[in-house]
Write a structure and sequence with these properties.
With 87 residues, the protein is α+β, with helices and mostly antiparallel strands. Helices cover 32% and strands 30% of the residues.
Length: 87
């Protein structure tokens, strides 16, 4: 069974920050983000899917998930607040 890059990123972030929700997000270019959102379980709640930066920000703005992946700092900056960043 294969593991997606988003799943691997989320697993690493969850190991570093146990019990926290995780948004794994990769910059896909063309103003697109590949994203997967896992709750505290960690249970997959969204994705993996292609989304926009504004949609990714909407997933995290009301909570305190850990962000992971190449688009993590971009999502945090657009949300206008600080998030823990996984590897």
């Amino acid at each position: 069974m294969g593991v997606t890059t988003l799943e691997a990123l989320a697993t690493e972030a969850e190991a570093a920050f146990p019990g926290r929700a995780v948004l794994a997000a990769l910059d896909a270019g063309r103003e697109e983000i590949h994203a997967a959102f896992y709750d505290e379980g960690p249970v997959l709640r969204y994705g993996p899917a292609v989304t926009t930066l504004s949609q990714a920000v909407a997933m995290v703005v009301d909570g305190s998930p850990v962000l992971a992946g190449t688009a993590a700092t971009q999502v945090a900056a657009s949300a206008g607040r600080t998030f823990d960043i996984g590897s």
